[in-house]
Fold this protein.
Amino acid sequence: MNHIDRPHYPLFNEADSAEIVNARIGPNVASRTRQVAEAVVRHLHAAVKEIQPSHEEWLAAIQFLTDTGHMCTDWRQEFILLSDVLGVSMLVDAINHRRPDGATENTILGPFFVDGISVSTHGTNICHDGKGEPLVLRGRVIDIHGEPVKDAIIDVWQTNDDGFYDVQQKGVQPDGNLRGKFETDSEGKYWFRTVKPRDYPIPDDGPVGRMLRTLGRHPNRAAHIHFIVQASGYETVITHIFAPDCPYLAEDTVFGVKESLIGNFELTDNEKEAASLGFPSPFWSVRQDFVLKPSD
Ligand code: BEZ
Ligand code: FE
């Protein structure tokens, strides 16, 4: 009999399945890659051992992932949506943005940010379709010692009062509706006019929406306005302000709500101020400061 010098990998058995697979990882693999691969295999095998799937169930899982991939296009990322509704996007963000007390917290970015909007003058009304309840938002960007941060750039975007972003309704909403960019002044101040945000469903016409329905979950996001706040020398903040009276605050479908991000919305009945803003009275008034942490 010919002697063939085979490596001594253990043959497959159910009990040691994860260790057997991980033993095949080569000796020259980068340690981070090894750590990630080993953990994924270990947890995947543990889940399969707990679930004990039939072949049909396993194939259904493969079909779900296949459908999720097929749903992805340049403008629709169904895998990120899956990560969002499973709470993984918020977990990754929490791990990567542990901030000191008082610094503005991050939340989910979502798929509807548009880069490259030009800077508007303070006070601009970003609502161009005339729908919704008028709202004025005023505040400052400051550092963790309360000092103003001038020349900070604030990107803002939200849905219209029908619950859609402009990019979801091209030709229906005016381009750039409810998007803006503002630069803080020498006192760190900014202000603009918009409308009160409303709750809306995430895109749920794909496999992620099907999964939510199967799990008895709704697709709704709590009413919010998105912000990205950037300033040189500071960690960029990707965040929201949530409307305090929204019924979905405690059950945002992507787990984006944090107590500190629930805004202070005041219904203001003041004819004179309303007239100066070009609003009817009453109107909504929100004061929101953003507190930045120095970048490492
Ligand atoms: C959003 O807030 O725009 C959003 C976040 C996560 C998934 C879908 C939409
Ligand atoms: Fe949103």
User: Anything to note?
Assistant: The chain has seven helices and eleven strands. Residues 17-81 form one domain. The mean pLDDT is 96. Residues 81, 84, 108, 110-112, 202, 221, 254 surround benzoic acid (ligand 1) (CB under 6 Å).
